[in-house]
Design a protein that fits this description.
The chain starts with a helix and ends in a 6-residue tail after the last strand. The mean pLDDT is about 90. Helix content is about 45%, strand content about 15%. By secondary structure, it is α/β, with parallel strands linked by helices. It folds into three domains: about 300 residues, Rossmann fold (3-Layer(aba) Sandwich), CATH 3.40.50; about 180 residues, Phosphofructokinase domain (Rossmann fold); about 70 residues, Arc Repressor Mutant, subunit A (Orthogonal Bundle). Strands 2, 3, 4, 5, 6, 7, 8, 9, 14 and 15 form a ten-stranded mixed β-sheet that branches. A four-stranded parallel β-sheet has the order 11-12-10-13. It has a two-stranded antiparallel ribbon with strand order 1-18. Strand 14 and strand 15 form a beta hairpin. The longest helix is centred in the middle third of the chain and has 23 residues. The protein binds 1,6-di-O-phosphono-beta-D-fructofuranose. 1,6-di-O-phosphono-beta-D-fructofuranose binds next to loops.
């Protein structure tokens, strides 16, 4: 048999061998080393759990008295003091502990490394149990023992597939009772909740409930969300999943900018995930330098109306056109609608009415019936605004709420709403040049030739929504290391007997400092479904932050010239593989974003 013939025979079986997450890439990334903080490195080079000591950092929560009243037991225990992970001087052997873990909310890259980190911290003398399908699985008691061999298979791979996830909020007395039953039935000593602000709020309430019931089960939260809004300044610069998601989007936005410049005809309107905060949009803007990036927090702060926003965008489109650039990319944060002042008032009014009449409205058969019921209960301005919205958006605002009572903004086609309004305005500019060009305030100086040229141009648009494709990719090196460290931290906290904390990592530029943040220190009081609720505060873009300023200082230049850049695909090895998010590096005042340092690299092979 010739070499070629023998290759031919192998090819079909080689191809089939890649089934079940065994692509050449997946096999290679499983073997990738992960940086590990020295705090977890034992004398013999093996991984060991960390110990914890109190720092001088104290969380002063915004509504201290109210928080203390809601969480008296947990606050008395933690005193809202931040803990630091340290290397155990003489390793304490803790055995026989049973610790369960669940994923909650949307997937984020690195979840499987959290599990691997937990298992590594617990070691062979303790048991890790997985809870299937998130909080719902906890309520049902759907648990199974996690084997090291299973985790060696999923380490460094994307998604939450190993356990699954859901968005059930645990808030009724019956649900707390069900949690108790599961804990007692499975003899749990610890429960790890991997989630965003709502899920970690759940963790805080469960911790308090268990203390009140004198049940000895430790509750630890882990900060997860691609949105990047589960963050706490220096103590927790970012949640996991953000780096991977923003790098996936940045590659695609870079490609679109390149396509726009090549085809020289399209304006790409790209909505980017991020339910509330515009952190994803800001990072992608810094990575790709698009023509325009809207930042919701700035729009709310400057009280910019929808029409004003449209005018500003059309002005940039016109100025670019006058330079011969009739294409570009516009980034739109998913949560924008809730930050446009008049829309935010409308949503608040709707929340109140819906909280009072939810069932009546749900029972009304047609949209028209719902409108007739709702409009008289809104202020005249809001009713008018609502009536001017496309019907699908109106329907979404009324009906489509998630379990936490929030509008499902990812379903609202803001990019299409903007396109509609921008196209209308751009055609008006063409139809009435005398209003927009010439001398005088706000007018654009233009020669007759330029005006003639403008008349010949049309506005071709394409809309995109980049969201789900960024949540379950293979974690970047940064997220892989960060999540492994978070798992190690959470496991160590349970073994150290701590409860009511969130695992955290900071100092990404110098080996990683391991922290435990008291959950109650992150709590604030917010309006939800028209009612006050104690919840963990979302971390939004601050217009005073170095990352926002870096964007604001450069945006005019990027708007008027095609200066986009294409960061390319995520690298898991190679020159760009050690990058961290630019926004994080800027806001943490690091000197470099190209090389994170979270410890010494180690190939992780879990052993029984
Ligand atoms: P989490 O905060 O739960 O991680 O979810 C974030 C997110 O990806 C948002 O950006 C988006 O609005 C939402 O999930 C979409 O959720 P769903 O999966 O329910 O459509």
């Amino acid at each position: 048999m010739t070499e070629r013939e023998s290759n031919k025979t192998n090819l079909p079986s080689e191809f089939i061998c890649t089934e079940g997450k065994h692509s050449l890439f997946e096999n290679a990334v499983r073997e990738l080393p992960i940086p590990v903080s020295s705090v977890f490195m034992g004398e013999d080079g093996n991984i060991v759990p960390a110990a914890f000591e109190e720092t001088e950092s104290l969380f002063m929560c915004k509504e201290h008295d109210l928080t203390e009243k809601t969480f008296p037991k947990t606050m008395a225990r933690t005193r809202n003091i931040v803990l630091r992970g340290v290397k155990q001087k003489t390793p304490q052997k803790v055995t026989g502990k049973r610790v369960a873990v669940l994923f909650s909310g949307g997937p984020a890259a690195g979840g499987h490394n959290v599990l691997a980190g937990l298992k590594a911290a617990l070691g062979k003398d303790n048991t890790l149990l997985g809870i299937r399908k998130g909080p719902k699985g906890l309520l049902k008691g759907d648990l199974f023992e996690v084997k090291t061999s299973q985790l060696n298979e999923v380490i460094n791979t994307g998604g939450f597939g190993f356990l699954g996830t859901d968005r059930t909020k645990i808030k009724t007395p019956d649900q707390f009772e069900q949690v108790k039953e599961t804990i007692l039935k499975h003899r749990l000593d610890g429960l790890i909740i991997v989630g965003g602000d709502d899920s970690n709020t759940n963790a805080a309430f469960i911790a308090e409930y268990l203390e009140k019931e004198s049940i000895d089960c430790r509750i630890i939260g882990i900060p997860k969300t691609i949105d990047g809004d589960m963050a706490a300044g220096k103590n927790l610069p970012i949640s996991f999943g953000y780096d991977t998601a923003t790098k996936v989007y940045s590659e695609l936005v870079g490609n679109l900018a390149e396509d726009a410049a090549s085809a020289v005809k399209y304006w790409h309107f790209v909505k980017l995930m991020g339910r509330t905060a515009s952190k994803i949009t800001l990072e992608v803007a810094l990575q790709t330098k698009p023509a325009i990036a809207l930042i919701s927090e700035e729009i709310a702060e400057k009280n910019i109306s929808l029409n004003q926003m449209v005018d500003d965008i059309v002005r940039i489109i016109t100025l670019r056109r006058m330079k011969g650039i009739n294409h570009g990319v516009i980034l739109i944060p998913e949560g924008l609608v809730e930050f446009i002042p008049e829309m935010s008032v409308l949503i608040q009014e709707l929340n109140k009415v819906l909280a009072e009449y939810e069932r009546d409205i749900r029972d009304l058969p047609t949209l028209k019936n719902k409108q007739e019921f709702l409009y008289p209960r809104l202020t005249a301005h809001s009713a008018q605004l609502m009536a001017a919205l496309p019907e699908e958006i109106e329907e979404m605002l009324i009906l489509d709420r998630d379990d936490h009572g929030n509008v499902k903004v990812s379903q609202i086609e803001t990019e299409k709403l903007l396109i509609e309004k921008i196209r209308y305005k751009a055609s008006e500019v063409k139809r009435h040049p005398e209003k927009y060009f010439g001398e005088g305030e706000g007018k654009i100086p233009a020669t007759p030739e330029q005006l003639q040229e403008l008349q010949n141009l049309s506005l071709s648009t394409q809309s995109h929504f980049l969201g789900y494709e960024g949540r379950s990719g293979k974690p970047t090196s940064f997220d892989a290391a960060f999540t492994f460290a978070l798992g190690l931290t959470a496991g160590s906290l349970v073994l150290a007997g701590k409860t009511g904390y969130m695992a955290a990592v900071t100092d990404f530029d110098k080996g990683g400092t391991i922290l435990a943040l008291p959950l109650t220190g992150l709590i604030t009081c917010e309006m939800r479904k028209g009612k006050e609720e104690m919840v963990i505060e979302k971390s939004l873009v601050k217009t005073s932050s170095p990352s926002f300023k870096a964007y604001a200082e450069n945006r005019e230049k990027w708007a008027l010239n095609d200066l986009f850049c294409s960061p390319g695909p995520i690298q898991h090895w190679g020159p760009a593989s050690r990058q961290m998010p630019i926004t994080v590096a800027l806001d943490q005042e690091y000197t470099d974003y190209k090389t994170f340092n979270l410890g010494e690299e180690k190939v992780i092979k879990l052993k029984d």
